[in-house]
Structures are given as C-alpha cells and as structure tokens.
Specification:
Number of domains: 1
Largest sheet: 8 strands, parallel
CATH architecture: Alpha-Beta Barrel
Structural class: alpha/beta
Mean pLDDT: 95
Distance between the termini: 5 Å
CATH class: Alpha Beta
CATH superfamily: Aldolase class I
Number of strands: 8
CATH topology: TIM Barrel
Length: 256
C-alpha cells in the first residue's frame, strides 16, 4: 500500500516563533491524519529538534531536513550531515530539489551520494526530479526525468528503493505563467512508475509514493491528488498558511 503524503517544504521562510506557531495551528485543526495519510514538515535545520517535539504525540506527523551534505563528515564548514539531522529527530530529508540543482549545481552523481548517506542513517529521502521549460518544449521530458532517476537511484537494491519517496517538480510550470494540469501530472507520474517498474518490477514500483511538486494549493489539491499515480504533494508556499495546508492534508486520498 502506498502512503499518501502531504510534505511541507518551508524553504528559507519563517523565524523560530512563527514556525512553532504554524505547526501548532495545523495540528490543532488536524490532530491525527487518517490511516495511510502522512504529513511531513520539511523545516530549516535549526528547527528540526523543536519541530520533532511538537509532532511526537501526533501519529502521522514527521519532520524532514531540507538538505544534507554529500559527505559523511569532515572539514566542510557550514554544512550539515545526514547523521546530524537524524540525531535531532529528522525522519525524512529532501534530496535533489530543483533549487538545489539550479543554485548549488548539484549533479545526479552528488545526489546519489546523498541518497546513500540518508539511507545509512535511516532517513527517508524525498527525491526530487523534474524538467525545465526548454526540455518540456522540446518534448524530451520523459527521457530527461528517466535520466535523473536512473543516475541517482538505480544503484540501489529493490529493498532500498522501497524506502524512497519521489517528488516530481514540473519546473516549467513554476513562476513561468504556464500551468501544469492534473492530467499532465498524471502522465509524468505514470511514466516515472513505468521507469521504476522496468528496473525493479511492477510490484515494487506500485509501492513507491510519488508526490507532485508543482504549485499545489488548497484549491487544486483534490483534483491533482485524485489522479491514480499521484500520491500527495511536496508543497511550497501554500504550506506556510495553516488553513491552506490543512485543506491539502484533507485532500489526500486513501492509501492505494
């Protein structure tokens, strides 16, 4: 059975007090998600321990780091290791977000190293993939995202890949004025599941949660999440508003 997941990516937003208040408000409105539904707060690293304390008595809620470094330890001033974020209560980590790829030049090879370190420290990676506008316009999006998946994940065993959550981000539909439809989201999610099935077999592919990361909000969440291969969302701006994010949580479908 695939988990249905609403993952909140706060990015570099909210001070400490605002973050605490946001979690408290969301949990007060939705104390326990329905069975099979999961809520993940991907908070700035400074807030992981506090966020973990806030959610520990509410089943269905977890905390994620937004990033880890691709080395185990060493003289890397300012970086944060997988072991560090796990030691303060993170259960998930976002790996390969489009902003990390674009602004910090993270390659598929670097992301493969991060995946390994996350799994070694019992963190569930939320692995992001997705194509740019030129790639979409060229009609090569399927091959592009298949390359991201194969180069960063296909060294894993079937047992390991079952511990991965995938998030598809249509970069071409974020801040461009263009809009990805629910049908376009389903098409790509179905393709990603086919890519996984070709490598690991359909039974394995059918167990992997694939989230949609293209400007999910309260008004479109239900339509997007109703698609058969969409298992929730990786949510940016809408996750910073309690009422919006609660609506998104409630839009998750029952586990499939």
């Amino acid at each position: 059975m695939r988990s249905q997941i609403a993952a909140a990516n706060w990015k570099m937003n909210l001070d400490f007090k605002q973050g605490k208040q946001l979690i408290e408000e969301i949990i007060s409105q939705e104390p326990t998600p329905e069975a099979g539904k999961k809520v993940v707060f991907a908070v700035p690293a400074l807030y992981i321990r506090s966020a973990r304390k806030k959610v520990k008595n509410n089943p269905g809620y977890s905390v994620s780091a937004q990033n880890i470094y691709h080395k185990k330890s060493g003289a890397f001033t300012g970086e944060i290791s997988a072991e560090m974020v796990a030691s303060v209560g993170a259960e998930y980590v976002i790996i390969g977000h489009s902003e990390r790829r674009e602004y910090f030049n993270e390659t598929n090879g670097i992301l493969a190293e991060k995946i390994n370190l996350a799994l070694e420290n019992n963190l569930t990676p939320i692995f992001c993939c997705g194509e740019s506008l030129p790639t979409r316009e060229a009609g090569t999006q399927n091959e592009f995202v298949a390359g991201q998946i194969s180069e960063s994940l296909f060294h894993l065993s079937a047992e390991q890949v079952l511990k991965i959550v995938i998030a598809y981000e249509p970069i071409w539909a974020i801040g461009t004025g263009k809009t990805a439809t629910a049908e376009q989201a389903q098409q790509m999610h179905h393709w990603l599941r086919q890519v996984l099935a070709k490598k690991y077999g359909q039974p394995i592919a059918d167990q992997i949660s694939i989230l949609y990361g293209g400007s999910v909000k309260g008004s479109n969440a239900q339509e997007i999440f109703s698609q058969p291969d969409v298992d929730g969302g990786l949510v940016g701006g809408a996750s910073l508003v309690a009422s919006e994010f609660v609506t998104i949580i409630r839009a998750l479908k029952k586990s499939v």
